């Protein structure tokens, strides 16, 4: 049984030809100095080869493969949904490295196209598209992780100097130490609470008043960071939307996060399942009926995930969270956490040993360690279930602030 996710949804000759074009380009270009990047830089491995992956971003951009879904007038290819799905699937199938520019290309860029000013688009889109400027996301805080509306970072407009002054702390900030800019959700109206009184700011990281500290993880990496703002500054015009509209912009950005790139994520998951199957065959674990059943369930879960993602793309507008999109994070994060457990059970007692010479062993250990966080980051299970209930099913909000 092959576990590859084939493009059963692609039916036209033109789309098949485009799939071959993407696959051929990747086969010809993930070579030479870039060959080492195959299957590197994904979740839990984001510290791998940062300089070379930045060079890969520029290489993609030079060939027009950096921002395939952006409108042509903003420097993208303007591909339709079907071809964007093809690109993301083939990129993952070829072992394309984790995108150093993902936050800019997949999140901030589309948000600026939809909600930014003409000046903001002219200033920031070219650097993102060409792989010259990289971005981090400033959402979570020590006291406001899953409950983002509880954030306390504050921004004050200094009209005399034409600047926003920023003070506070962000945490779990992916690759902030490799980024030049960060978008920050901050409270700009004194006395405001919850979702009210927030602003969405674009802030340079290389300045006095910004301190970036790495967070070492159980897997050994430290792609996450704490970012401290101590009277940091950004230009007054570097606000997306109006003061008080920060929550609306932030939610629009999260809608792009659950967009077309999810199909590439699933191809990455498929490769993990295939790797687990190969290791199970090689070490004899596949002889266990219980493990074979779990492998079959993992494969079935992938198919459910794919069909829901296609339904999500068909049923919701990009940049907004449809009902289908509301369940996506809860589903994949629990499925992926279980896959990490399966990987360790297939490794057996050798999973407790470090073997840097065995690439499959390293990848499965890394899979297990990183998936411990899947049901926590980007909104914990509990928060996701509240969102599904309240926004998807229209149920009453859970009482808050009561004993």
UniProtKB/TrEMBL annotation:
InterPro entries with a match to the protein in the record: Acyl-CoA_Oxase/DH_mid-dom (IPR006091), Acyl-CoA_Oxase/DH_mid-dom_sf (IPR046373), AcylCo_DH-like_C (IPR036250), AcylCo_DH/oxidase_C (IPR009075), AcylCoA_DH/ox_N (IPR013786), AcylCoA_DH/ox_N_sf (IPR037069), AcylCoA_DH/oxidase_NM_dom_sf (IPR009100), Mycobact_Acyl-CoA_DH (IPR052161)
Pfam family, one: Acyl-CoA_dh_1
Annotated ranges, domain Acyl-CoA oxidase/dehydrogenase middle: 136-231
UniProt keyword terms in alphabetical order: FAD, Flavoprotein, Oxidoreductase
Domain (Acyl-CoA dehydrogenase/oxidase C-terminal): residue spans on this chain: 244-392
Domain Acyl-CoA dehydrogenase/oxidase N-terminal: 12-131
Signal peptide residues on this chain, from the entry's feature table: none
PANTHER family: ACYL-COA DEHYDROGENASE, ACYL-COA DEHYDROGENASE FADE29
Family per record: Belongs to the acyl-CoA dehydrogenase family.
Protein name, UniProt field: Acyl-CoA dehydrogenase family protein
Upper lineage: Bacteria, Pseudomonadati, Pseudomonadota, Gammaproteobacteria, Oceanospirillales
